[in-house]
Amino acid sequence: MNEQAAGAVYGYDIKTKAVKFSLRSTEDQSKFGLGLSYNPEKNLLAVGAPARNYGLYMYHAGAVFVYDLGSSNLTFANPKSILYSGDRGARFGKRVFWANSEDLIVSAPSYTTYNTVGVSNEQGMVYYFSRVDGLNG
């Protein structure tokens, strides 16, 4: 593995200081783990990867991976769901926040409306996802 800035998230047992889980991205430059939010009611972890690419035309679009921390198959490649913005360069997932047990707020600070004339670049966008627990990855 020669990935740079791929990112990782490690969960620790506070009492024993032992690693409970590790989620290590295999996606070069994705910055997986830059945004994090834990949902204690559903035992879900939302992890932002704001520099994740989708081919040549979706450079730094970003994504948010939602993991069930109670899963017996807790790996980077096995999220409960993945959320996308679909906007090139948006850096979707830089910040994530559970608004309540099912709703997730995600920032895309570099979002730009490409078809708007006379508007400065990088206006930014905030996304509100309802009932994230019901999505499938």
SSE inventory with pairings:
Elements: E1 8-12, E2 19-24, E3 35-39, E4 44-49, E5 63-68, E6 81-84, E7 96-98, E8 104-108, E9 125-129
Q: State the helicity in percent bands.
A: under 10%
The secondary-structure class comes to mainly beta
Counting H and I runs of at least 4 residues, what is the number of helices? Answer: 0
Spatial strand sequence of the major β-sheet: 3-4-5-6
CA-based gyration radius: 15 Å
Shape: globular
Beta-strand residue percentage? 25-35%
Average pLDDT over all residues: 87
Catalogue the unreliable spans: none
DSSP, total strands: 9
Strand-and-helix sequence, N→C?
Answer: EEEEEEEEE
Number of domains: 1
Largest sheet: 4 strands, antiparallel
Query: For the terminal residues, how far apart are their CA atoms?
Result: 25 Å
Question: How is this structure best described in words?
Answer:
It is a single chain. It is globular and about 50 Å long. It has no helices and nine strands. The protein has strands at 8-12, 19-24, 35-39, 44-49, 63-68, 81-84, 96-98, 104-108, 125-129. The relative contact order is 0.18. The strands form three sheets. The protein has a four-stranded antiparallel sheet, with no helix packed on it. It has one domain.
